[in-house]
Structures
1.
Amino acid sequence: DTAVSQTPKYLVTQMGNDKSIKCEQNLGHDTMYWYKQDSKKFLKIMFSYNNKELIINETVPNRFSPKSPDKAHLNLHINSLELGDSAVYFCASSHDTSGGGDTQYFGPGTRLTVL
Amino acid sequence: GQNIDQPTEMTATEGAIVQINCTYQTSGFNGLFWYQQHAGEAPTFLSYNVLDGLEEKGRFSSFLSRSKGYSYLLLKELQMKDSASYLCAVTRYGGSQGNLIFGKGTKLSVKP
């Protein structure tokens, strides 16, 4: 019954590794997002996809690449992990873009720790 | 650019009323959301304001003044479970209209 799910919940890895975080939503929404929440709890948009097409790419290093195989999934792949990538990553989805007032529903988050 | 300000921390007593303010300066402002986030959990939706005025939902109400760039979240009959961070977020028209631009959140502690 989980609306927005993410795996894994925790991810601990070494600097320089490549890792992926998966996100799935069963709400039938057209838009999905990735956010990063840093140690100061500041939540910041990274990417937004609408119907499998990228519509927002905030200033994010090229090491981060979102992939959307279908509109229910938005995965985040990170190359060459750095210490500063340690954060909680939240996936979210909304029926349409929130510019129209659509509520975003968040997944449980993935806590990434880079050693 | 955009700027969203809210107090970093607040403390209130169980059963009391607390008002959490949010001021914003952003081009192409469309609407304002409030989210609640308990420690270690995902943000959850509380309210959305696009027109001026007060929206009431049970113990929680949210107010917006577009001309003043100001919103507040009012929590009545505080309960211990209301201890959480409260995030103000704005949306904009234009190319990034899907964005939620979040403030840094207000950590509310409810004491017995």
2.
Amino acid sequence: GQQVMQIPQYQHVQEGEDFTTYCNSSTTLSNIQWYKQRPGGHPVFLIQLVKSGEVKKQKRLTFQFGEAKKNSSLHITATQTTDVGTYFCAYNQGGKLIFGQGTELSVKP
Amino acid sequence: NAGVMQNPRHLVRRRGQEARLRCSPMKGHSHVYWYRQLPEEGLKFMVYLQKENIIDESGMPKERFSAEFPKEGPSILRIQQVVRGDSAAYFCASSSGTGTSGEQFFGPGTRLTVL
């Protein structure tokens, strides 16, 4: 079945630096969702993108869906220690979510 | 409005025992999903249920695992004759509508440890 590849697996940044995680698929996706999971916690929905070339912003977070709907990115500007966690992309296939491997973000104060 | 509830939060079983994990979806949600997260790995879909129906069980292991979502009461994920490889976090999620789009709300998970 379809898979989404997510990179990088880990990212260590200094507080205040920017962070980006990328999600890629070999086939066109009808939608892409992003979730955040804090250490020891559960996934929390951040956003869903469905349109080609769509860009959405939530404060310091910017989400993009590629023109070909085969890739997506999450960019965090000026990271804070509260941004620590694992960020997953996922797409909804008939109800079930297919997740990328996740990018674990650590932020050094 | 309570979120998705799961219990127990932590469960310890010895090899060969049975594990029963419960999930109560958010109020008004009729779609329930179970996911498994192995240590240091991502989330893997297991099963998608609506009331009294299994919609998609393509992620369920063929043996020892079963799930139900009865007309009354919580959804149950049952693992028979547990083995060490079953140790993982099991998350339940729920959604409203058709379930084919939109966010899923996750519960806090059940951390299963098999000794």
3.
Amino acid sequence: AQSVSQHNHHVILSEAASLELGCNYSYGGTVNLFWYVQYPGQHLQLLLKYFSGDPLVKGIKGFEAEFIKSKFSFNLRKPSVQWSDTAEYFCAVNGKGGATNKLIFGTGTLLAVQP
Amino acid sequence: DAGVIQSPRHEVTEMGQEVTLRCKPISGHDYLFWYRQTMMRGLELLIYFNNNVPIDDSGMPEDRFSAKMPNASFSTLKIQPSEPRDSAVYFCATGKGTGGSSEAFFGQGTRLTVV
């Protein structure tokens, strides 16, 4: 079955702390991977994406994620978080090619950054 | 481009009433997704279309839910009759599926409250 698991449901950090959010997926075939961010009261916005090539992907606002194929993982990292990073973060996956392009999301991780 | 446009932004209705949510995709996008977001269940994929054709509606919770895409620039999600447990934020997202790789662009969502 296609699924995305995010192990951390709620993370609380102080400003300047480092962040790593876990994401594991189950999806037959070659995949594309995404991290989306949802700021309070807003819609989901793309943070970064992996389609192919370098497994270390850099996104906006200093975020990066590493695709480790052998572990079916795509963890999100940021070396130093800011209060403005308080948001909910969603990992997502879809498949390459074919007629289907089902985009599956994880349950999300709520990040609260304390000033 | 104005992005994905959803209407209404907020809807409050009484149990038993019919509710219709609307979505205008980004021009040129051939995939359209309907998601439901709740605190308990996170972000659930209800149904998605490719070139106006429903591809997978396995996420539609009950027969009370139906979705249509009569043309490339309009989709509706209808709930009839509505129930309090349908209260959620409903997001429409669209993407361009060229080569099977597509990130999704989200609308602002419709916050539905059924009383």
4.
Amino acid sequence: ILNVEQSPQSLHVQEGDSTNFTCSFPSSNFYALHWYRWETAKSPEALFVMTLNGDEKKKGRISATLNTKEGYSYLYIKGSQPEDSATYLCAFKRDAGGTSYGKLTFGQGTILTVHP
Amino acid sequence: EAQVTQNPRYLITVTGKKLTVTCSQNMNHEYMSWYRQDPGLGLRQIYYSMNVEVTDKGDVPEGYKVSRKEKRNFPLILESPSPNQTSLYFCASSFLRSGLNDGYTFGSGTRLTVV
């Protein structure tokens, strides 16, 4: 079983603060790194799919970077709002040929709470 | 609307009574997968399928069965449920080469309680 670690486990910030979390994954046989946002009582929704070392993706106030050589990705939220409160999941896909194609291994998530 | 439909949303059952959780997607995705979510353990893969009649075990397959007779459907079967299968279950689907697109689409989840 692959090891995908996220830190911190939880985070409380004030509205307007900027924040970031980390996802660590195996640096060998990299294929893709996904980020998902998971709101309470809903299902996870894809934020970003990143495939190239040095990738930077942005969606509104949320952005992500990728370092495949050292095996980490950062998710940044600028000017956090209460509606950003959610669990943020990263997931790693290994390149191992057809048998693991499409298989994602998820981290445990970072729970973000933004206080008004 | 492109979606993954899971049913039921909530289910309480008794130990040993066979049950099926259905999953259907309308996006022509080749890849479908079942996950369970338990506190402190993250999303763990139960089974996955890369296409019709192609299924394989994930990380926690014990006590579960799946089938993929049609591209859009991927039911999860618990032949003899036990209390340790009480969990939140998600079905997800994607194109096979999903590293190049928008990621997985998840169903709305099934909260299963086995008493």
